[in-house]
């Protein structure tokens, strides 16, 4: 089979490698669509993610996949060959309280495909059968792939932040996560304000449903949000940039008793807890992916509300063009880049 390997800093190779073996609890999945994520670029640039450096070279990245079950181990009962599935990226111990509730990413022993183990930028992948999440025939493989991270994560963030009709939602950052947030917040009924310094990305966000767009290079974000919200401030803000300016913007634009969701990965941030949080009595939520057991709920929501999640896939490539795909994604010239295989 063909598999992408990161063999050095900003060096991609597509190699022939054996199809992985299936254990008794495993499923072999033939990939049909798998997206690139900003976190894939950590390894691409020679840095680390999840505080792990065990797979710096000669590993297969990719953690947003879906495909068709090809083979299952003797102990797998939830899926069978021929099933269309999305794949949950995290593998835990399977026994702790977090694994049992579907939050494997919180397990002390968790591993993520594409980081601690070979990922999905390949023709096939082996994962525990429990990580296979069925997708209905009416959902495309590309859409399902985008739900395994961006879509599922932003659905969960909007639900947990209580986005609903009439509420003003500021989304900071109009990259893939932010634009996924635009789609989900609109489907929940929110009035969406998108903030970004890239005019092209703001135009894209408008095209998928954002009600207002603010470029901090051109106008004062806090002042403009107050104008839009008739002096109250936003009810909810979702931070998707992963930088200090974005985080502070999210904290500053919400009204007293508002809610802020933090999605953008960031190892350091300075803010004023008293003025920005305590005295406004804000609720701040860490938002990371989704609970595996919510998959059916997420898929139903997208289908019932006609969420155009597939529009995020602005660039599609075959696996043999991985070098170009990574280069384009790294240039910020795309929203989501997705590897696809013919039906």
From TrEMBL:
Keywords noted in UniProt: Metal-binding, Oxidoreductase, Zinc
Annotated organism of origin: Christensenella minuta
Entry-linked SUPFAM superfamilies: GroES-like (SSF50129), NAD(P)-binding Rossmann-fold domains (SSF51735)
The protein's required cofactors: Zn(2+)
One Pfam family cited in the UniProt record for this chain: ADH_zinc_N
Domain of life the protein comes from: Bacteria
Name used for this protein in its record: GroES-like protein
Family statement: Belongs to the zinc-containing alcohol dehydrogenase family.
Domain Enoyl reductase (ER) stretches: 8-339
A GO term for molecular function: zinc ion binding
Alphabetized InterPro entries for the sequence: ADH-like_C, ADH-like_N, ADH_Zn_CS, ER, GroES-like_sf, NAD(P)-bd_dom_sf, Zn_alcohol_dh
Gene3D superfamilies: Medium-chain alcohol dehydrogenases, catalytic domain, NAD(P)-binding Rossmann-like Domain
């Amino acid at each position: 089979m063909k598999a992408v390997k990161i063999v050095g800093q900003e060096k991609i190779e597509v190699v022939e490698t054996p199809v992985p073996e299936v254990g008794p609890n495993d499923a072999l999945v033939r990939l049909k669509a798998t997206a690139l994520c900003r976190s894939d670029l950590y390894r691409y640039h020679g840095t680390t993610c999840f505080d792990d450096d065990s797979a710096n070279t000669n590993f297969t990245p990719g953690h947003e996949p879906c495909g068709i079950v090809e083979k299952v181990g003797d102990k797998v009962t939830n899926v069978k060959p021929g099933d269309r599935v999305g794949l949950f990226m995290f593998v835990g111990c399977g026994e702790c309280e977090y694994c049992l509730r579907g939050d494997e990413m919180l397990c002390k022993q968790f591993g993520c495909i594409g980081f601690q183990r070979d990922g999905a930028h390949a023709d096939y992948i082996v994962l525990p059968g429990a990580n296979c999440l069925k997708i209905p025939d009416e959902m495309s493989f590309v859409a399902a792939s985008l739900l395994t991270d961006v879509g599922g994560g932003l659905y969960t963030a909007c639900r947990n932040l209580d986005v609903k009709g009439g509420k003003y939602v500021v989304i900071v950052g109009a990259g893939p996560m932010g634009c996924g947030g635009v789609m989900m917040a609109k489907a929940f009924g929110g009035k969406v304000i998108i903030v970004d310094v890239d005019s092209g990305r703001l135009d894209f966000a408008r095209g998928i449903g954002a009600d207002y767009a603010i470029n901090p290079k051109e106008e004062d974000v806090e002042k403009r949000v107050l104008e839009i919200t008739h002096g109250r401030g936003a009810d909810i803000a979702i931070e998707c940039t992963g930088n200090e300016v974005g985080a502070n913007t999210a904290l500053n634009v919400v009204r007293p008793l508002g809610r802020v969701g933090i999605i953008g990965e960031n190892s350091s941030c300075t803010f004023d807890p008293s003025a920005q949080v305590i005295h406004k009595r804000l609720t701040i939520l860490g938002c990371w992916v989704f609970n595996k057991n919510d998959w059916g709920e997420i898929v139903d929501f997208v289908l019932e509300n006609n969420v155009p999640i597939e529009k995020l896939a602005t660039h599609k490539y075959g696996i043999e063009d991985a070098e170009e795909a990574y280069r384009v994604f790294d240039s910020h010239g795309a929203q989501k880049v997705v590897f696809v295989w013919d039906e």
